[in-house]
Amino acid sequence: MAEYIESLSLLAEKFGRLEGVGKKSAMRMAFSVLELEHEEAEDFARAILDAKEKIHLCPICQNLTDREICPICADENRDHALICVVRDARAVLAMEKVREYRGTYHVLHGLISPMNGISPDQLKIKELLLRVDDPEHPVDEIIVATNPTVEGEATAMYLSKLLRPLGVQVTRLAYGVPVGADLEYADEITLFRALEGRREV
Amino acid sequence: MAEYIESLSLLAEKFGRLEGVGKKSAMRMAFSVLELEHEEAEDFARAILDAKEKIHLCPICQNLTDREICPICADENRDHALICVVRDARAVLAMEKVREYRGTYHVLHGLISPMNGISPDQLKIKELLLRVDDPEHPVDEIIVATNPTVEGEATAMYLSKLLRPLGVQVTRLAYGVPVGADLEYADEITLFRALEGRREV
Prior knowledge:
2 copies of one chain form a homodimer. Chain A is an alpha/beta fold. Chain A has 2 domains: 2-54, RecR Domain 1 (Helicase, Ruva Protein, domain 3); 76-200, Dna Topoisomerase Vi A Subunit, Chain: A, domain 2. Chain A is 43% helix and 12% strand. The first copy, chain A, has helices at 6-16, 23-34, 38-54, 71-74, 89-98, 125-133, 150-163, 188-196, and strands at 56-57, 64-65, 79-86, 103-107, 141-144, 169-172. In chain A, helix 1 (6-16) packs across helix 2. The radius of gyration of chain A is 21 Å and the shape is globular. Chain A starts with 5 loop residues before the first helix and ends in a 5-residue tail after the last helix. Chains A and B meet through helix 1, helix 2, helix 3, strand 2 and helix 5 of A and helix 1, helix 2, helix 3, strand 2 and helix 4 of B.
């Protein structure tokens, strides 16, 4: 039946192109659009175009922004000598939720992955080196906060080798058991890393 | 951070208005829109407006369609003396997947629910009676295929009382254990209904 309602299946197909949206969810969302008020549907369409048009990369940290320079790079109260390197804009979102971090960011837009044909020159690493090289804004420490996966580790290693000779301290987020988790369900590697990184209480 | 990228959070908010989309999924989809090609984003926006503009209710069965009369009602090869009554357009979709049903449909656009303040006159029941009353297209049987929930049952009961006096056979989908399911996980009411409806093999 859905294929009979051409404009509905076309809309479902568009939803299905978004990351993590399966066929069933896409169809459910398409139906849901039909239940919106006419004005709401127009606002939705406009929001898609607006986001696409206005959002670009911050020329400093490469994070997404709809201003000339993103609000974090523009914030005088943040520590510009401290840079947290992350894979994507979503990771910035996660870090900012903590509200404890007062440094800046650098978004790589990917991780080094020879398996997927992603080499360092496809990431925003040149832009990071330019920041480290800028004599007006010296960088003291770079926290590599890429995911604790094979690609995340490889990227961290690569950056560390690249940056240490430039006199920058390179650190990595601590590994360990997630707060509130049950030890029983932690995998062995996490437990091993948690043990390795143990601290006196 | 997301609140800083105004156009992104606005877009996420629009996704969040759709049924079954939580805050996290909405944000993930908004980010995902940014990764679309410019043209794809424009197509997406247009698909929303198109669907909203072109899709209306079939004047006969009240199902969603972008034609004057929906393809099922317009199909001469289907049995117009048999009407399957469903809650919404999604149920039609589910039934059509079976490919065994060759009758027509009638979409109620809801179920009777005094708890939620939904009374029979808010549903497309008048339109169903008009179809039953049409001497040019006599109706033999109405299958009430509303969900096996309290509201679905109440609606089935109501329709049955309304339609039987008009000389129409009113039936209900069979209850039972879902094919491929494990008896261990079936609830007691389903098992009881399956037992009640047992058949000789």
